[in-house]
Each structure stands twice: as C-alpha cells, then as structure tokens.
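Researcher: Let's walk through a ligand-bound prediction step by step. First, I give you the protein sequence. Second, the SMILES string for pyridoxal-5'-phosphate. Third, you return the three-dimensional complex as structure tokens. Ready?
Model: Ready.
Researcher: Here are steps one and two:
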Amino acid sequence: MNPQRRSQLRRELRGRAGHWRELVAAYGTPLLVLDPYRVAAQYSLLTEHLRGFRLHYAVKALPHPAVLTVLAASGSGFDVATGAEVDLLGRLGVPAARCIYTHPVKKPADIDHAHAAGIRTFVVDNPIEAQKFVGRDPEIEILVRLAFPNPSAKSDLSTKFGTDPTDAELLVKHVLAAGVRFAGFSFHVGSQGSSVTPYRDALRATLELTRHVERTLGVQATTIDVGGGFPVSYRDEMPSIGAVGAVIDQVLGNHHSFRMLAEPGRFVVADCMTLLSSVVGSATRAGRTWHYLDDGLYGSYSNVMTEDVHPPILALSEVDGDDVAMPTLEPVTLAGPTCDSADVVAADYPMPRLAVGDVVVSPTMGAYTSVTASRFNGIAETPIVVSSAR
Ligand SMILES: Cc1ncc(COP(=O)(O)O)c(C=O)c1O
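Model: Step three, the predicted complex:
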C-alpha cells in the first residue's frame, strides 16, 4: 500500500477507532463489524451513476440478512444463483418479482424451484441450457449471456461462462425454439477490473448484436444486463463508479429504449464490513519480523487466496486518537492462524511496531470474504456484529 493511500485511509478511519475498541472489549477478536448504513450509501451512489438502471444486488457477495434487508428497503432488486439464495430472500419476505436467476448452468430442479418461488427471468449461455426451458411457462424470459474476455479483471468470468458473441444468434434461435421469451443479452466484464474500457467495448458489441438479431431473426431485444464487476479501491485507487457510469452513458446515448439491468456485488458491500483481528504471537525468522494474527486466508481473508484481492491492513493504534503523524513503519509478514505455510495475509508489508494483543484493522472486508471462508484447523468462523459508528 503506498503512503498516500495509507494516509487517506488513516484519515477516513480515524473517527471509528473508539467504536471498534468498545466492540473488541465486548466481543473479542477476530470480529467482523458490519455497518448497514454503508450498504445503503453505496447503493445510492450506484443509482446516481448508473442512471436509469434497475439494480439487482448479487447476493453471493455477502448474503447477510442485515445487507439484504437494507437493500430491500432501498428498493433494490436481487441477483440469485442458487436455490439457497432464492429461499433466503423468500424467508426475508423479498418479492420474487424483484429477483433474477443468473446462473448460466443449472439443474432443471433449480429452475423448477426458482419458478415455483415466482422468478421469471433466467440466463442461458449454451444450447443445452436453452433446451432445459422446453415445455416450461411461456412467460419465462431469457437473457443470453455473452462472454467478453477481460485480462485486467481479478476474476475474468468469461473463461467459465458466456457464449462467444459470434454464436449468440444461434443461441437466440434455441431460446425461441424452446418456446420461452427472448428478453435480451447479459454479460459480466469480470470482477474488480482496473479499467472502464471493457464496459464500453462489451456494451458497444452488445448493442450491435441487438441490431443484428433484429435484422436476421426479426426479434427485438428489450433488455441489456451489464452484470457486475464495478471496482473497489482496496490498497490501490481504482476507477470510480462515476467513470464507469460515464462510459456507459456515452455508449448508450440519451435515446435508447432498453430496460437496463446491472448485478453489482462487490461495489455494494466491500465497504460495509471491517475486520478487527489481533496479534497472537511474533517471531523473527531469517532476519524478518513475523506477526501471527487470529484471522487469515482460511477465514475472513479468503479473498486474498480466492481472488488475489489485497485489503488494506492498518494498526488500530494508527487510527486512534488525534495524532496525525505517520508512525515509523517496518516491513513485516502478517500470517494467519492455521498451520498451513500458505496462510500468509501479507508479506513485506509496512506496519508500525506491534506487540501481542495489539489490534489490526482491515476495512473493505465485505465482499467475498466471510462467505468463502472455511473452517480449516477447526477454527470457528469469524462472528459478524452489526453495528454503526455513532
Ligand atoms: C452472474 C454474476 N453477476 C454478478 C456478479 C457480481 O459481480 P461483482 O461482485 O464483481 O459486482 C457475479 C460475480 O461473480 C456474477 O457471477
């Protein structure tokens, strides 16, 4: 993390340190602190910059009831990918009409289950999937998922899902032959990309495809779903949501008639959760300082392993009190609590002097963290406490 980003985070986090100390005193560490107001704020930022879009929060990023409830109250739609996610929203009383089922490959029983719950929008990306809709409710609407490679993304989803745009016309024919409605196209430019141009290129190609299928098949695509992928600034600054919105507006222009959808996950929740962990032990190995934390790669920092995403880490003492001077930092290794040597959260990472019992803070720990954690070594999952700084 460069010094400017560290200073910026130290300023931003300063007012919250006292609240975190109280929570650590009450609950101990490791602890994830979830602030639902930050979810509402990110949702509202997205609505401001993705003008005219219907947003469907990607439940997989953080399916915590506090998140889903605040989004439901804000008017959000939801993007689900499994029967379990359908059931979770059902239990919270979210109307199925607000949900779209976007997994491109699913069991027929999953389609039955989602349809019985009231979901009518599904995604396909290959002919075998389209054939699963033969004989089903003709009111079902299908989005054809397109693949646009994006090497700049942390997770380039186009290798696993989506049809090559050159095969899309044939796939639309399969959808029509299945006897359900063809609604339009969806794509996902990959999660946590460092550039906005993949949105521009994918949207341009998709608009061209809508014109093409209208010419060749006489069908009108009414819906375009730009997926998720909106980047978050972890240790490095990333393009703002304003920059993403601007390229989308530029490509769409003012006079389109499409129903525009998006499926944001990371952008909505990354910022809402902060991890508080503490130093369990310290050692010097080959002349380097190691600190062992009570959370790691097999726990809340699972995103380091699964996505190569690197959240910022600061000492709580750095953001406590009014002292604005940067402490002396030395490069250390921060390791997780399991016996696996791969369980290293950060190497050669600048930290102030730390002692056993000191608390370290990682903001931006809401997306793809606790949800992909395991219980390796029998370590319990890190508790989540819902609490807003006063
Ligand atoms: C189909 C689909 N939509 C939306 C998302 C959310 O993406 P992000 O968290 O990058 O916004 C994902 C993430 O894997 C996805 O697979």
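Researcher: And what stands out?
Model: The first strand starts at residue 31 and ends at 34. The chain has two domains: 3-33+271-386, 36-269.
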